[in-house]
Amino acid sequence: MAGRDRKRRGFTSRTKQRNRALDVIFEADEKSLLDEDSLRDLLAQRQLVSTAQVPIGEFGSRIVEAYAGNIDDVDTIVEASSEDWAMSRMNAVDRSILRAGTAELLYIGTERGQLIPEWASLAREFSTDRSVGFVMGILNRVADIRERETSQSGSPAEADVPSDAETLSDAEAPSGAEAPEESGRGHAADGERTAPDGEGVRQARNAGGNAGESDPVRDAGESPDACDEDPAALALSGGAGPADGAAGASGE
């Protein structure tokens, strides 16, 4: 546990806000609040009181707002990028990470080399090691789609580029964190006190597996080694797509 505490202390301020955004989107998924009005209402509550007892800040709120205003579009592009993996088959944490990461990529405009390693680090922290390659593969496909559309339209999305001090370094990225293979159901009730820094996601995950959710790497028969590469290097090079990293793998 001490090792995890050290890793979380190494998170940058933006990583912590991505963590808060993940908490809100995950909670909305668990409570079936994935429509624009309900999600905005939940965000307003979490700007005052959060399951981590630290209100979500401006950057985290921007991510949730980006998803709330584009729920159908984000879910459609995630499904299209995950090939054989319907979102209903993904575990709840991976699904929420992909929604938040895709919304940030498409509507906030953070560069893929900065964004993908950070969401991969949260996948490693709150989901499973095998989920890292799955998340990176899908976000890289989303980034490829965005870049193709940008080159065709000639009007790139407004970039929101953090300073070097805010970029998650390799040393800061969590690695080797053990977690159950599937994410559980059941989120803390509004205002209920829980542990800090994303423990709302972690506690719900530890509450038990959801029979309808799958580990894409496990079910595809993929080796855990497929996700051992450095997240930053994979993101900058285009990364392993779901077929190579996790989702829809046909085996090597």
Write the layout of secondary structure elements.
Blueprint: H1 2-9, H2 13-30, H3 36-46, H4 58-68, H5 71-81, H6 92-108, H7 112-126, H8 129-153, H9 199-206, H10 216-220, H11 231-237, H12 242-245
Helix pairs in contact: 2-4, 2-6, 3-4, 4-6, 5-6, 6-7, 6-8, 7-8, 7-11
Overview of this protein structure:
There is one protein chain. With 252 residues, the chain is mainly alpha-helical. It has a domain at 13-151: NusB-like (N-utilizing Substance Protein B Homolog, Chain A, Orthogonal Bundle), CATH 1.10.940. The chain has 12 helices and no strands. The protein has helices at 2-9, 13-30, 36-46, 58-68, 71-81, 92-108, 112-126, 129-153, 199-206, 216-220, 231-237, 242-245. Helix 3 packs antiparallel against helix 4 and helix 7 (112-126) runs antiparallel to helix 11. The chain starts with a helix and ends in a 7-residue tail after the last helix. The model is unreliable at 1-7, 156-197 and 208-252 (pLDDT under 50).
Task: Put the structure in a nutshell.
The chain is mainly alpha-helical and 252 residues long. The chain contains twelve helices and no strands. Helix 7 packs antiparallel against helix 8.
